[in-house]
């Protein structure tokens, strides 16, 4: 079923933009929750790598292998840990969760309150929604 937007006026486009704002807010909140989850996962994975390293080194020691295999295993786990840390060392993951959430929520509220554009046509609605969506992108944050 298609929608005939040729008959839309200011009221219809404004209602569509309001619904779009709400949808973008929901998706943005999900994205912020995903970022917070990645932060929590990071610490758990690094802890697991460290625990596995300790266990492996202790196991190798108790089996009587020489110092060289133990050192190689330790270096391998150190490399894994550093690689994982480097992957997650992006500014967006380093910033405190509450800081990001407050910034995004304030900017969304400010955008809605200061929007003075008359939305009379589809291009106006698309432009307003795209600008609003940018508030929740990593580039903007």
Main pleated sheet: none
Distance between the first and last residues' Cα:
37 Å
Structural class: mainly alpha
* Dominant shape: rod-shaped
- Secondary-structure element pattern, one letter each: HHHHH
Q: In total, how many beta strands?
A: 0
What fraction, in percent, of the residue positions are helical?
over 70%
Nearest-integer average pLDDT: 85
How many alpha or pi helices?
5
Beta-strand share of residues? under 5%
Model regions low in confidence, pLDDT < 50 over at least 5 residues: none
Radius of gyration: 25 Å
Overall description:
There is one protein chain. Helix 1 (10-62) runs antiparallel to helix 4. This protein has helices at residues 10-62, 67-88, 91-94, 97-114, 122-134. With 141 residues, it is an all-alpha fold.
Question: What's the SSE blueprint?
Answer:
Layout: H1 10-62, H2 67-88, H3 91-94, H4 97-114, H5 122-134
Helix pairs in contact: 1-2, 1-4, 1-5
Question: What characteristics describe this protein?
Answer:
5 helices, mainly alpha, rod-shaped, 0% strand, 141 residues
Q: Brief description of this entry?
A:
By secondary structure, the chain is mainly alpha-helical. The protein is built from 5 helices and no strands. The longest helix is centred in the first third of the chain and has 53 residues, at 10-62.
């Amino acid at each position: 079923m298609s929608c005939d937007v040729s008959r839309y006026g200011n009221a219809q486009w404004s209602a569509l933009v309001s619904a779009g704002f709400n949808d973008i807010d929901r998706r943005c909140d999900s994205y912020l929750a995903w970022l917070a989850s990645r932060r929590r996962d990071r610490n758990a994975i690094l802890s697991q790598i460290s625990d596995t390293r300790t266990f492996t080194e202790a196991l190798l020691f108790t089996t009587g292998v020489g110092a060289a295999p133990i050192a190689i295993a330790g270096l391998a786990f150190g490399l894994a840990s550093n690689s994982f840390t480097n992957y997650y060392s992006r500014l967006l993951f380093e910033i405190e969760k509450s800081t990001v959430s407050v910034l995004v929520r304030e900017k969304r509220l400010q955008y809605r309150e200061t929007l003075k554009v008359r939305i009379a046509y589809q291009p106006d609605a698309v432009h307003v929604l795209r600008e609003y969506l940018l508030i929740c992108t990593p580039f903007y944050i």
